[in-house]
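Justification of computing resources. Each target in the renewal requires a structure prediction run like the one illustrated here; the chain below, 364 residues long, is used simply to show the kind of job we budget for.
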Amino acid sequence: MSGPMTRPLAARRARPCAAAVCAAALLAGCTSGSGDPDASATGRSPTSSAASAPSSSDQLQNEYQSVVKNVLPSVVQITTESDLGSGIVYDDQGHIVTNAHVVGDARKFTVTLVTGGNPLEAVLVSSYPAEDLAVIKLSAPPKDLKPARFADSAKVEVGQIVLAMGNPLGLSGSVTQGIVSAVGRTVTEGAGDGGGTGATIANMVQTSAAINPGNSGGALVNLDNKVIGIPTLAATDPQMGAGAAPGIGFALPASTVTDIADQIIKDGKVTDSGRAALGITARTVVGDDLRPAGVAVVSVSDDGGAAKAGLKAGDVITKIDTTPVTTMQSLTEALAAHKPGDKVQVTYVRDGSTRTAEVTLGSI
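Resulting structure tokens:
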């Protein structure tokens, strides 16, 4: 396909990693290979009990295969007129969750199940680009749909082994392996020709599992057969030009997925974003050196936190708490770390004088 369905942090997706090598590294030194430490020196054979005992590598391989068997049937391929991506069966009513950038502007889709059968038709329920999430629904869901189970995001820990399942490069039902590299990342994805929504998303799960075009909207799964996130972005390395940064991918956390999806399924839209806002419209301004120097307030909402704190049109915001604000993107990233109801210290410039105000954040 020409357009990436897994969207870059800056331009493209991450390169694939060698899962077999990763697995070997994880397993190194875990097994002795012999029940007798002197066997190699004396020529004696290992004892029969040691020879028959399953190795750690066998146990881990069995766990991988069990997870694939249990979860992969819940991962589907979503095709639009121009591209394809992945999705996860959310319930037995035919709802499927995926990334907003996977559905794009489309309203109708073709869905292919890993378990086979004829392609199924689906329609858009709603898309929420601010969190890069969307829900579509099968027009005639089969009776043997297998909804995925979602994990508690609070229990996701760095170092956990994970499998990424999806349809990279159109290779249906592919699986890659890695670990949770970090949690709580705030990431801004590309927009425009890159195909992303331009969203700034908080609390993302960083993973070393290979995420390639077509993986977007699929499943990042732990060894308990639960989805911990939806693979969404892969980083790029500016020093490599448009090249991907190997082993750095990001997934929407399961808690965000279930919160947004439940609202869309119930109300047809997102009614409570959980995203903090100042209650302003604004634009980036530049300084005398023509570099971004802050965010100018264009207007304030009458009932918003900024208005109640005394901010008004013409003020230029330069800092949220201790975080410098030079562009609209940096303002969005600063607010992504907060929740509605939080109080923040806003530094701004009015008539050449620097001032501060405590603002109680509202919601988008």
